[in-house]
Predict the structure of diguanylate cyclase.
Amino acid sequence: MPRDGDLRAGLGGRLALASAAIAVGLLLLTAGALAPVWQAFSDAGRDFEDLGHFRHVLEAVNRISVERGPANRAMSLGPGHPEATMRLAEARTATDRALDDLAEAEDRIHGARGDDATTRRLIELARMVLANGRREVDRVAAAPDGWRTSADLRFAIGGMFAAYDAFRQVVQWEIGALGRRNPDLVGHAMVTDAASEMREYGGRLGSLVVPSLARREPLAAAQLTAIAETRGRLRELWGLLRQQAALGPGSALAPLAEAIERDALEKGLPLIARLVAEGTGRADYSLDIDGLTATYVPTLKPIEDLRQAYLDLMVGEAAAKRHAALRYLVLVGLGAGGVLALLAALLVWLRLGVLQPLLAAHAAVIALAAGDAPEVGPMAARRGELRHLFASLGVLRQRLAEREAAMAELRRQAETDALTGVANRRSLDRRGLAVEAGAPVGACLVIADVDHFKVVNDTYGHQAGDDALRLVAGLLRQAARPGDMVARFGGEEFAILLPGAEPAFAMRVAERLRRALAAQPFRIADGAVDVPLRASFGVAAGRLGAPDWYELIAAADRALYRAKRDGRDCTRFAGPIIEAPASEGAAKPLGEGVAAAA
């Protein structure tokens, strides 16, 4: 007679084998149904990713085109115009950032797919041409007024044209790559590229006039020819774009098409034509460089808006396709999962509701045959494993809480100056660069520098110097309002960030702090000597967030340096002078001075 264990193993094994066979067959059917759905979802996801990468490409080539405007202005004005130099530097930074983003995206997307490195090589080549163009721009911009000729300007502008043309190779290659992966995307990509080209040729029209306009000279024959060709190319591109159904009457992009005809074609082109007419005579131009920028560049904005809107339309369609494919994939997956779950429930029911009762009945029969009187009842639930599992999870949860507390302490130490207990420079920069939603963007920054601090260190020792810094930090903390930040800026310099404060309020806080420090006795640790402490204060008003935060720091630094130059122990503001009235009298104790400012 077979033993109970052998019978249980035989029935259980056969049930497991049958279950496995059914599950494998069902999984094969599910895989067959999911394969085309998954392929459609993968293709839609790749299209979305490719169009996002194409957006990076067009953004980079557009930044090269936009950079030419500040370059033209810097060359036209020459040295001695820091504002023009700054604008050019900002434009170059934006261009370099766009090119870096593109290179990073190229490595991330195409590198992961194992694509060839053609795009990366073309980007590097375009960057070399751009570097050459920038060097020529810098050479002309640095030349004295008498040494800068219109020929020099034309040559430098031609170098920037060459940089754009070099990057056009990247655009053309990416359009071809899109077509090889999905031919349906090529038409949309070419329309977007045509809008980008139209914006470039509109910008070139202005650049071609710049050399003669800057030098107040007649237009050369080569310039006139280039202007005519560029104008014809611009109209040709608009003719191609105007035929697109997406720009037709009643479409979402129709208002942009009307804006292009109204601004770029009916205002911008006639403006260039007027300057050309003036340049073919006595060169008595009615505009200067700044006037050209102010009146002509805005007429090109609808073209850029059209490029961006059409690209958004492309990406939106790809996102919608991906979403639809994902939804279908989820539905099919849920259906297949539901069938598998039903099968699993059936197998569990067979085991618990049929197999185990039969085995229990068989055991009872065997026991009766042996003369025993077994008690037949429900099987006890096995819960011991779960108890051990949750006990382990409790231990793990406790370990995670301890780790989080340790990480919080490490973050606090990383953002706090160990000597004074106030925030450090890193924490201050993080606060200044991160603008929270709903928080005031405007802010004032006060930088204080302890005067002749080296004398304290050299005369009384570094311990006395450390005590002095703690004293200054304590005074600043007392002056801070809720929401303000006190930080050690470096060495003997401290800073108070006053979000939302007005300049006059910040000046009063700084001046009363200065007086409070002067009135606060600093006693050396042995109590034998009272050392007078003085500080110079620089105050500036500006905005939080990049890049304004760094400009605010620079402004406060300039004010501090002016306070140092003016004899130290004073407060200066970066901008129109906002000094505390002389009638406020001598230094007041901290509780009467700084607290009143709040």
Notes: The beta strands are 442-450, 485-490, 493-499, 522-523, 530-531, 535-543, 571-573. Residues 577-598 have pLDDT under 50 and may be disordered. The two ends are 96 Å apart (CA to CA).
